[in-house]
């Protein structure tokens, strides 16, 4: 897996508002079960560490979708304490993979009392009203879907988890000329969180898809926390394209072809375009642009839901629900739609590992002192040029 070397775009900053309180995290035992980590409480209660002494942290998932954040965090050693998701199909997938996790349907009816105390809260809040894929005027945070961010903020104000992690399309950065994004940052800052953000592209994390998303990290009353989580102190050795000879431009990964080149079988791009939430009924207006041609046959098809699972970084069969729950004629559309809205697990795992390291450091070193008004805003520099893609 190759990791992100530098920010993909946008400006990255840290904010802190002087209010709120700290909620202590709780830990419990864990063990590996199958392809992803299921951490179980074997102590008949929270607050104890595993027998080997390594801490296990907890994560509550809101706007859970099909569990992209949840899977990534459990691969990093977290235990999922709670999931909130309104879509029936997505809830069926969550129930399949996390049958023991408490679940809630409507975030508008949720209170902090319903959410187990957790170290981290994640939220891939709806993107429909800020996405560039939506034709025409975007409603932004005033829309009925993306405006659910305020319900998340309400709950954060009640619960004050130690770390919050949000994800959305990078169109959020530009919605209403940036005013919507400013509202998100200010709202979280007023709740007592130092906030940072970074645009990450899934293709830099071993995912065969160009998928840019903005990830927002908030740390309660710790101005240095978001930068520690989102940014590496040094550039890593990466896998940048080799420069062509004699000054020629390198071939775009979207134009590199793999598969049965020269044969009767299919060929595909080495990197897929961004998968979006779409129907199984092709209308000619979807934004995925990723198709699978059979050159010698003169045929073309779209990726199957199982292939889209791989393109998104999920295990194959992840979105296959238990038999009999849904009409077979609508099932592919449900799978395509839920995958197009999902968080890619490899990116979630990378962020979860960095959050885990941050939490371990806080536990070992104690909480740093809060320096009042001087901690209100700390700039962590400008990122590289923003490359606009799907969002």
Task: Give structural notes.
There is one protein chain. By secondary structure, the chain is of the alpha/beta class. It folds into two domains: 11-237 and 342-382, Vaccinia Virus protein VP39 (Rossmann fold, 3-Layer(aba) Sandwich); 254-327 and 335-340, no CATH class. 23% of the residues lie in helices and 18% in strands. The chain has eight helices and 15 strands. It has helices at 68-75, 88-97, 149-159, 179-190, 225-230, 305-312, 328-340, 345-365, and strands at 11-15, 31-33, 36-38, 58-62, 79-84, 103-104, 120-123, 163-169, 193-201, 212-220, 257-259, 267-269, 292-294, 299-301, 377-382. The strands form five sheets. A seven-stranded mixed beta sheet has the order 6-5-4-7-8-10-9, sandwiched between helices. Strands 1-15 form a two-stranded antiparallel sheet. Helix 1 crosses helix 8.
Summary keywords:
single chain; 391 residues; alpha/beta; Rossmann fold; 2 domains; seven-stranded mixed β-sheet; two-stranded antiparallel ribbon; 15 strands; disordered N terminus; disordered C terminus
Summarize this structure briefly.
With 391 residues, this protein is of the alpha/beta class.
């Amino acid at each position: 897996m190759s990791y992100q070397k530098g920010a993909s775009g946008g400006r990255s900053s840290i904010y802190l508002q002087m209010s709120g309180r700290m909620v202590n995290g709780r830990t419990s035992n864990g063990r590996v079960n199958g392809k992803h980590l299921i951490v179980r409480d074997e102590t008949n209660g929270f607050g104890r560490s595993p027998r080997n002494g390594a801490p296990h942290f907890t994560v509550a998932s809101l706007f859970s979708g099909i569990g992209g954040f949840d899977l990534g965090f459990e691969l990093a050693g977290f235990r999922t304490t709670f999931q909130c998701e309104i879509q029936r199909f997505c809830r069926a997938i969550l129930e399949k993979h996390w049958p023991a996790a408490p679940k809630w349907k409507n975030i508008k009816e949720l209170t902090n009392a319903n959410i187990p105390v957790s170290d981290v809260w994640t939220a891939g809040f709806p993107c429909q009203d800020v996405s560039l894929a939506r034709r025409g005027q975007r409603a932004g945070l005033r829309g009925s879907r993306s405006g659910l961010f305020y319900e998340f903020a309400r709950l954060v104000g009640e619960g004050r988890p130690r770390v919050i992690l949000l994800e959305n399309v990078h169109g959020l950065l530009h919605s209403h000329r940036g005013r919507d994004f400013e509202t998100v940052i200010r709202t979280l800052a007023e709740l007592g969180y130092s906030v940072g953000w970074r645009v990450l592209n899934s293709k830099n994390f071993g995912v065969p898809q160009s998928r840019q998303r903005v990830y927002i990290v908030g740390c309660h009353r710790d101005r240095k926390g978001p930068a520690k989580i989102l940014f590496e102190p040094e550039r890593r050795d990466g896998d940048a394209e080799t420069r062509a000879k004699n000054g020629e431009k390198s071939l775009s990964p979207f134009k590199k072809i793999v598969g049965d080149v020269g044969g009767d079988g299919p060929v595909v791009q080495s990197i897929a375009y961004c998968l979006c939430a779409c129907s199984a009924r092709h209308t000619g207006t979807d934004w995925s642009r990723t198709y699978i041609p059979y050159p010698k046959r003169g045929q073309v098809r779209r990726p199957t839901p199982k292939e889209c699972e791989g393109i998104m970084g999920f295990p194959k069969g992840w979105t296959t629900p238990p038999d009999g729950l849904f009409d077979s004629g609508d099932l592919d559309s449900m799978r395509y739609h839920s995958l197009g809205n999902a968080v890619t697990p490899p990116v979630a795992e990378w962020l979860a590992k960095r959050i885990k390291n941050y939490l371990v450091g806080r536990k070992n070193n104690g909480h740093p002192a809060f320096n009042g008004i001087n901690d209100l805003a700390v700039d962590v520099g400008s990122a590289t040029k923003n490359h606009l893609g799907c969002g």
